[in-house]
Amino acid sequence: MHQAAARSPHEKPRVSARGVMLTLLGVVIGSAGYYASWRYQTPIGTLGGIAGLALCVIGTSHGHEGGTHAG
Predict the structure, then answer these.
(1) Cα–Cα distance for residue pair 1/27, rounded to 1 Å
(2) Residue 63: which of 3, 12, 5, 23 has the closest Cα?
(3) What stretches of 1-71 adopt beta strand conformation (E)?
(4) How far apart are CA 69 and CA 13, in angstroms?
(5) What's the whole-model pTM score?
(6) Which of 2, 18, 22, 64 has the most C-beta neighbours closer than 10 Å?
(7) CA-based radius of gyration for the chain
(8) Cβ atoms of residues 40 and 2 within 8 Å
(9) What's the rounded mean pLDDT across residues 3-11?
(10) Which residues are within 8 A (CB) of 17 and not within 5 positions of it... i.e. 6 or more apart?
């Protein structure tokens, strides 16, 4: 079971670069995909938008992996 490490109330959680990059990549791919879907009515644009959204979710879930884990 994953437990959060004890930290002081003023300590900010560390953010992983991998999570930030995945989220930003998801925003770019998702925006382009949904724009193509809306503008050109292409199913590939919808798939690109869904892939971008998935990358955002994955990036956000991995965004705080930089901290210590109790275990």
Answers:
(1) 31
(2) 23
(3) 3-4, 69-70
(4) 12
(5) 0.67
(6) 22
(7) 16
(8) no
(9) 63
(10) none
31-61: pLDDT as tens digits: 999 999 999 998 999 999 999 999 999 988 8
How buried is residue 60: exposed, middle or buried, by Cβ count under 10 Å (0-12/13-18/19+)?
middle
Between 55 and 12, the higher pLDDT residue: 55
Separation CA 20–CA 15 (nearest Å): 8
| pLDDT at residue 26 tops 50 | yes
Give me 33's structure tokens. Answer: 């995909």
pLDDT at 9 over 80: no
Per domain, the residue ranges of the chain are: 28-58
Q: Which residues pair with 3 in a beta bridge?
A: 70
Residue that the structure tokens 């892939």 belong to: 51
Instruction: Give the residue carrying structure tokens 């959680």.
Output: 13
